[in-house]
Amino acid sequence: MTTIPLDHVLILPVLLFALGVIGVLVRRNLVFILMSIEIMLNAAGLMFIIAGARWGQPDGQVMFLLVLTLAAAEVSVGLALIIRIRHRLTTLDSDAADLLQG
Amino acid sequence: MIHDLWLVPAFPLLGAAILMISAGRLPSRAVALVGVVPVAVSAIVSAIIGIGFMAAPPSGHAFTEILWRWIAIGGFRPAVGLYLDPLSLVMMLVVTIVGFLILLYSTEFMAGDEGYSRFFAYMNLFVSAMLVLLLASNLLFLYVGWEGVGLCSYLLIGFWYQDAANGLAARKAFIVTRIGDTGLMIGLFVLFTHLGTLDIQPLLHRAASVWPHGSAIASLATALLLIGALGKSAQIPLQTWLPDAMAGPTPVSALIHAATMVTAGVYLIARMHGLYMLAPAIQMTVAAIGAATLFVAAFAALNQHDIKRILAYSTVSQIGYMFLALGVGAWTAAIFHFMAHAFFKALLFLAAGAITMRLEHHEHDIFRMGGLAKKLPVAFWSFLIGSASLAALPLVTAGFYSKEMILSETWAHGGAVPILWAAGLVTAFVTALYIFRAVFIVFFGEAKTPIVGRYGIRIVLPLAVLSVLAVIGGFVETPNGLGGVTIFSRFMGSVFGPAPLAAGATETALLVFASLVSLSGVGLAWLLYMRPAPRFAAWTQTPSVVAWRAFFLSGWGFDVVYDRLVVRPFLYVVRINRHDAIDDVYTGIAEASRGLHRLLKLTQTGRIRWYAGWLAAGSILTIAVAVIR
């Protein structure tokens, strides 16, 4: 079994994370923003797995499970917030929710 | 009994407190009672303490009682304490007795005034503050009384505050004396930083042992105390407030001029005389200021129309005599003259009040009075006795003995002093002239203003008692040629040491000379104002004389000069600086931070994507810095 060099493997999570960041920044729909955050979380999880496999440690997978749980909790809270915002502003546009401006 | 000394200032304070708390709700009979009784009790307690003091003097002829420790900050531990020695005893007796008589008189004089209760509240506070000033064993506690009389004088001069002119006079008195007070306060700082205490007796002892004779620091301290004394005692150059202080009710003038307030400066210098002996130059300045003041004020008094202003300038002039005496080291003579002056000046003011209250519209102009001798015999005789004492008519008046003592000690002082003595003598002549001018114009000739009302016992009794005091008050100290009684100077000896006296023959000659001077002043007044010759009347109307009279009438133009030199430039600067240049710095700081806030506020858009963007940018930057370093 040929090993893929670490540098190459790391490109995937970095790309995923960058996509997530770009998604958060450019999308205005709150659901898409939430999904972009999920992508960033998974990119981080993938990084843990890669690191665990590289050094043969179980910690990476343990951390991934933690991230997964966290993501589940985050999504439920996030979706609840989105529903509330939808009720209140009758839109999913994140730029409309700027009531806290200074 | 001497341990109950604290009762003396406490009673008037209690009276003032009751009247202030009742806020004018008491009936006027109760107000009169609460207004007079505390000071009467104070006078009785003072008298008992005085008798006890004279019968069995405490060790060292002085009694100190520390009531409580006021504050303790490191080495600064001023005490609230009382100090009684012959000096403060005499002052205390005069203040309480004369104060009581004036208050008794006021109960009738002020009857029907809507501020009746307020008046007695202030008067009681005034007497209490003066007693604190006299009895304080500590300069800081003395300063409390000092400011207390300043406050009360402001309140009482502006008593009829509905008239704006009275308010202005009150403000003038307050501001001018405040200039002096500032000097006194800085003087206290200097004394404390150099001697480490403000308790008067330890301070004097320490100064005598630490400071050499004529040292610069002693001169500085005494000069600063002198500025305070000049303000309170209305001496040149801070005398301008006193004539305007006539805006207050007449009993107030009597109290300010006779017993309280203006004598505070005399007391301060007499109390601190140990310091002044260390600074001969400053002591000489005291004498020079006194001589200048008595001369200037006497000429101003000679040209006034308002009976109260005549008496006001006369007070300035007589306090000048006291300063002259202090300046030549005749401490006892100064206090003796203070006592005599308190009696006859209170008498003169109360008599003047008794005249004006009976005239229609409370006439104050002496040229609209006249022929009152027959119509107001009580006022006439008391005013005459007061005038005789002020003019120092020989043998029978208190003023004669005290003024004679000052003049003979000024003569005996030697040095450059004949000028001072000559000023005192010329002024004695002018004094007799101006006060008998008033007597002849007011009481003789034809009547010009109708008389109304009548006197009650509360007007007559104080006048009678003060008349007696103005006559017999001088017999406690007579010159060698006239019995040589020395009760007063022996009593004061423990404070001031034995007084130097002129040699016998010279003294007698001076005595006769001074008597002749006063008598000739009265004689000239009689010639000029009883039998006015047409030539004299014509002479008074020549242009140059008219100009001089206007100059003297305005009090030698001091008010005009101060208005030009101080008041107007000050108001000009104030107008320019209306918005406070110093304040601009702090406003600027506030404005700058507000501007920064406005900038920062622009980043707070409320848009979550921008926040996320900033977060990402910040993270990238942080990581980049961490990686590159």
UniProtKB/TrEMBL annotation, chain A:
It is found in: Cell membrane; Membrane. It holds the Pfam family Oxidored_q2. The chain crosses the membrane at residues 6-26, 33-56, 62-83. The keyword Cytoplasm does not apply. It is a multi-pass membrane protein. One of its GO terms (molecular function) is oxidoreductase activity. Keywords: Cell membrane, Membrane, NAD, Oxidoreductase, Quinone, Translocase, Transmembrane, Transmembrane helix, Transport, Ubiquinone. Belongs to the complex I subunit 4L family. PANTHER family: NADH-UBIQUINONE OXIDOREDUCTASE CHAIN 4L (PTHR11434:SF16), NADH-UBIQUINONE OXIDOREDUCTASE SUBUNIT ND4L (PTHR11434). This is NADH-quinone oxidoreductase subunit K. The lineage of its organism: Bacteria, Pseudomonadati, Pseudomonadota, Alphaproteobacteria, Acetobacterales. The gene is nuoK.
From TrEMBL, chain B:
Keywords: Membrane, Transmembrane, Transmembrane helix. Residues 70-120 form the NADH-Ubiquinone oxidoreductase (complex I) chain 5 N-terminal domain. It is found in: Endomembrane system; Membrane. Residues 136-430 form the NADH:quinone oxidoreductase/Mrp antiporter transmembrane domain. It is a multi-pass membrane protein. Pfam families: Proton_antipo_M (PF00361), Proton_antipo_N (PF00662). Its main location: membrane. It comes from the Bacteria. The chain crosses the membrane at residues 6-23, 30-55, 87-107, 119-137, 143-161, 173-198, 210-231, 252-270, 282-303, 310-332, 338-357, 378-401, 421-443, 455-476, 509-529, 608-628. This is NADH-quinone oxidoreductase subunit L.
